[in-house]
Each structure stands twice: as C-alpha cells, then as structure tokens.
Design brief:
Elements: H1 12-25, E1 40-44, H2 48-59, E2 63-68, H3 76-79, H4 88-93, H5 96-100, E3 104-107, H6 113-122, E4 125-128, E5 148-150, H7 151-160, E6 171-175, H8 179-190, E7 195-199, H9 211-219, E8 223-225, E9 228-236, E10 238-246, E11 259-262, E12 265-268, E13 286-288, H10 291-294, H11 299-317
Parallel strand pairs: 1-2, 1-4, 2-3, 4-13, 5-12, 6-7, 6-12, 7-8
Antiparallel strand pairs: 9-10, 10-11
Helix pairs in contact: 2-11, 7-8, 8-9
The chain binds flavin-adenine dinucleotide (FAD).
Length: 319
C-alpha cells in the first residue's frame, strides 16, 4: 500500500522558493542586526561568499563593511549566471536585505595588497572572498584577432547592457567543455548566433559540465567537436576560422591532418585563473573563503563558506 498519495518526493526547493518570493513581494523582514559588539570587520569581495559572511556577522552584532571592486554587488551570482537562469534584477534584489540590516557595501573599491595591510590595521578582522580571475588564455597564433575573446566578458555583457547590444558572431566556436562553456554556448544561441560549436580536446565522458547542462546544449542545437586540439586562430585582423588538430582519445597524441572550422567568434572557456597571489589565512585576523579557496564551485558552496567563516571570525573576535 502507498504510504503517501504523492507519487514523487515533495519539491522542497520549489516550496521554499514560492514562500520566499511571496515574502519578498510583501516586504517581510526576517532578520535584524544583533546587539552592537563594537567590533568591525572588513570583507574584500562582494560575491556570494563575502555577502553571506557579511550578513551573518551583522546578525551577530558586528559592524561590517564590504569592499567590492566592481560597480555592482553580488559577484558572479549577479554577472556570471546566465540571464535566462537568474536575471540581474533578481540577483540584485536579493542583496537588499543584506543592506537593510546595516551592512555597508562600498562599490568600485578594489583592494590591493597595500590596502589589505591598512584594512588589517583599521578593522578587527578581514575576510577575503575575491573569487577567481579571468578565463585562462590560450596563447596560440592569431589569439589577438578580433573575434577571439574570453567567456566571462561574453557572459557579463548580457547583464550589463541591453540584449540587442550584445556582440555575438554568426558562427561561434566555444573552446572548453565545462559548465561555463555550456553557458556561453547556450547564451550565444539565445543571442541569435547562426551556429555554435563546442570544441574539446577530449571526449564527452571527460567533459566537466553537468549532464543536464550538456543535454540543454544539445537541445539548443549546439554542435560538438570532440577530440580536437585548437592549434591556431586564422584570419587577417578579424577571425575567420579555428584550426584544430585531431587527437587520439586518451593519449591526446596528434591523429590525422589539421582542419579548419570557419567561425567569426571564438570564446575561450578554459577555467578561471587564481588571483590570490599566494595570500593565505594567517590565524591573526585574516580569513579566506569562497571560490578563491575552493578553486570554483557553486553559489551554495560559496554562501556556506561565508557562513562558516563568519562563525570562525566571531569566535576569533571573542577569543
Ligand atoms: C560563467 C559561470 C556560470 C556559473 N553559473 C552558476 C550557476 O548556474 N549556479 C551556481 O550555483 N553557480 C554558478 N557558478 C559558480 C558561482 O557563480 C560561484 O561559485 C560563486 O559566485 C562564487 O562566489 P564567490 O563569492 O567566492 O566569488 P565571486 O562570485 O567571483 O565574487 C567575488 C567578488 O570579489 C570581487 N573582487 C575581486 N577582486 C577584488 C579586489 N581586489 N577587491 C575587491 N573586490 C574584489 C569581484 O568583483 C567579485 O564581485 C558559475 C560560475 C561561472 C564562472
């Protein structure tokens, strides 16, 4: 006999989404700052990790200032997620409750090593959550041609300006096969590219993109070139083709003759670079978390990192 009339598990995530959306529309305020502790914490980086840490610390009663290099808060949650998944407006609206409980978010304030040293003197603790840097480059002949660009710039443009102004090629190739590559490819399709091809030097079993993202790309009509290694960007001034060298699956050794894939836009999605420059938590008031430590995960991981860091910082302030 069925233990429940339900044929599927209760969709808890969607129920939470429904309840919190309704509460947000009604202007319900769930959280308040804690009683003032007199302690001050600086957060470097206003992405999910930095903001969740700031929010938690403020609820504990600490004064928190977030220093964010860009002129919009939220990090990749605001600018990096595909707009058809999360709009810029929605991402920004989720930051308002953080401001509402008194977190001071300062935009356009990039913190370098010299500034970090002064923050350590001015504040009781510092949390560094700067995320990762730009996409890794691919130093091939022709990499300077117009039409060769990096994934994050391509994705950011759909958040920072009108869709009609977004640059997209007629024939787009995306180099790499992680989740970012899929996001770039599906965004290119939605922006009106005539054809989009993902180029990867290994096979589908080795791609790091989630299976459902791969399915989405296939449904969007994205083509895949497996087991080919890009060897040159071809063209005069502007990109005309990507030369690829077929390789043997597994060994990556050259196999057969190079061939050219015609394209006017090639987008590099080869993973992001580290920007910490060796900075480490020092046990003396400097804490780190989020993508800059994990090497890149999901928003929920960064948010959890921020909460865990807030607990550690709180304990350190009360030592
Ligand atoms: C293209 C792409 C798509 C993604 N899609 C998803 C998705 O669909 N779902 C999901 O869960 N996750 C997704 N992720 C992953 C997710 O966005 C990240 O894991 C998460 O945003 C990491 O949070 P963070 O706070 O550590 O770093 P970030 O979000 O990178 O935030 C770091 C912040 O620090 C700021 N900063 C950097 N240097 C300085 C400095 N010197 N001074 C001051 N501020 C500085 C940056 O401007 C940025 O705002 C995606 C990632 C990418 C790249």
């Amino acid at each position: 006999m069925d233990r429940t009339l339900l044929k599927e598990p209760v969709d808890i995530g969607r129920l939470q989404r429904f309840a919190t959306d309704a509460a947000a529309v009604a202007g319900v305020r769930f959280f308040e700052p804690g009683p003032d502790t007199g302690k001050r914490v600086a957060i470097v980086g206003g992405g999910p990790a930095g903001l969740s840490c700031a929010f938690s610390l403020r609820r504990m009663g600490h004064a928190v200032t977030v220093f964010e290099a860009r002129d919009v808060p939220g990090g990749l949650n605001t600018l990096g997620l595909s707009p058809y998944k999360v709009t810029t407006e929605f991402a920004l609206s989720e930051i308002e409750p953080i401001r509402d409980i008194g977190v001071d978010i300062r935009l356009g304030e990039a913190v370098d090593h010299a500034r970090l040293a002064t923050l350590r003197e001015e504040y009781d603790a510092v949390f560094v959550a700067v995320g990762l840097g730009p996409t890794r480059s691919l130093p091939l002949p022709g990499a300077e041609l117009q039409g060769v660009e990096e994934a994050l710039d391509f994705i950011f443009q759909a958040h920072t300006g009108p869709m009609v102004d977004c640059r997209v090629g007629r024939r787009v190739v995306v180099i790499g096969a992680g989740n970012t590559a899929i996001d770039v490819a599906t965004q290119a399709v939605r922006l009106g590219a005539g054809s989009v091809t993902i180029v990867y030097r290994r096979g589908p079993a080795e791609m790091s993109a989630f299976a459902y993202e791969y399915e989405l790309a296939k449904q969007d009509g994205v083509a895949f070139e497996w087991n080919v290694r890009p060897s040159a960007f071809l063209g005069t001034d502007t990109l005309e083709a990507l030369r690829v060298q077929p390789v043997t699956a597994g060994t990556l050794e050259d196999a057969g003759e190079p061939r050219d894939i015609p394209c006017d836009q090639a987008i590099l999605a080869l993973g992001q670079t580290d920007i910490l420059s060796g900075l480490k938590a020092d046990g003396e008031g400097v804490f780190l978390g989020g993508d800059c430590v994990s090497g890149g995960a999901e928003v929920v991981d960064a948010v959890q990192d921020g909460k865990v860091a807030a607990d550690k910082i709180h304990a350190w302030l009360n030592r």
